[in-house]
Task: structure prediction
Amino acid sequence: MGKQLRIILLIIAVIIVPVLFYGYLQLLSLSDDEQMAEKIYQKQMETVLFSLNQYADDVMSGWARQLGARESSLYENAEELILSNESIQLLAITNINSKKDTLFYSDYINKSQHNSEKMRKWLAKNDSLLNKLSSYMKAGFQKIQPVEWIDEDSLGNNQVGVTFMLFDQDSATLYNALILLEERYWTEGVLGGKMQKIATDNFGLAVLQFNNEAPPQVIYSTGNFNLAKGYVKNNLWILPNMKIAIQSSGENYIDLVRQRSRKNLTFLIITVLIIVIGVIVIIKNIREALRIAELKSDFVANVSHEIRTPLSLIRMYSETLLLGRAPTDEKKKHYYNVIFQESGRLTYLVNNILDFSRIEANRKTYQMGKISLNEVVKDVYEQYSHSFEEKQVQNQLKLNEKEIYISADKQALEEAISNLIDNAIKYNESSIQVIISTYSDTKYAYCEVKDNGIGIPDGEESKIFDKFYRVERSLTQKTKGTGLGLSLVKHIMEAHRGEVRLKNKFGKGCSFILKFPLEVKNDQNINS
Result:
């Protein structure tokens, strides 16, 4: 495992870390590009809105100059101004010294005798504002200030207007001018033309009205203005409850940058994922290759140990017989039986290795024929009588009452059953119990080998059929084995159009069930 860890860390250091670092830098770059593009776009849009605000302010300054024009009297100028501008509802001229006001009405506004009284209240309420505007005027600066006028009787609620100071040089008198506007008329009549000139195919302009928490309303627009789509807005200086907004007609620059950023980001993520997945696959393959190499090394050691044991017994008992040291005929018979059993075990081990080699080379063939499942199971059971007796295995054979015929290779079937019995004996801690049984239903024949051994840990049931795989437990490590038995069993069953099933209770034993089709065909060779 130390070697595997070093290789994995090396791959991570050489491939994954630089890729992830590059991806991180690209993400930062994409984010910076998007933010810069958004700032540029915002500035461009705000420049357009600023020009509109400046134009509106210039219009109001023009009205103030028109009122203060010396060619005519202040009141004549006021009459001309309100007649030439449909958006003006009310124009009030107030002498600051005498507090006398003169009101000029639009043709479509009802005159009210209470307006003079309301005007005095408004002047009293905005006394500090008027003083401030007066100080500006004395300093030579005429400031135009947005104001509100509340008149529920004649002009409607929350009227919006502007106020500024005028100085009549002939009479050396300071006047206050209050202009109340009809918002829609003013927007269409004053700003509308300018907005139409500025608007292009790429973007549209609109004036929006905001009232408390209600959704904004489009008062005027140069085209179809979509409130659900992103837009840039600024306060309209002249009308405080209004905002001028600008919106791209199609995909704006920032949207295009975002799309490019998303595409680049998607491509980058996919590339990083592909590289990471590739590295993971490489690491997995390396680990698997190292694991198989380690398993093969263990396999050689285990096979050597497995073969050495029967060879030692055969050599020992054959040497005893050759030297004539067997005291009785009964002992001779016992020694011959041991030699026979161990040579059979040795043949079984060698056959396993040879079969595995043929399977790996895809050269394994089976001689299929009609055989009795009961007879094969009984023969294998009798071959293990010596092992059962030697290891004190409580064994039981339960054969089906009627003969069960299947199409199978007799030698391969014996090999599969032998592997299962071997595992049942080896992987057991004490008081070994093995039950071998055969039975059938209408379509299939079954051979079951049940034990009370250590069982298979949860999650490893499917792995035990992999070649060289052995469960990592203290008992399995102490017990030598090739790790090929169950892999061969699975291959044999697949070649017989059957399957091997597992019933497992971890710590309480398990049952392996060989399932065969009942139908019997003519003898034939099956290549695997």
Remarks:
- Residues 364-527 form a domain with the Heat Shock Protein 90 fold (CATH 3.30.565.10).
- The two ends are 35 Å apart (CA to CA).
- Residues 253-322 form the longest helix (70 residues).
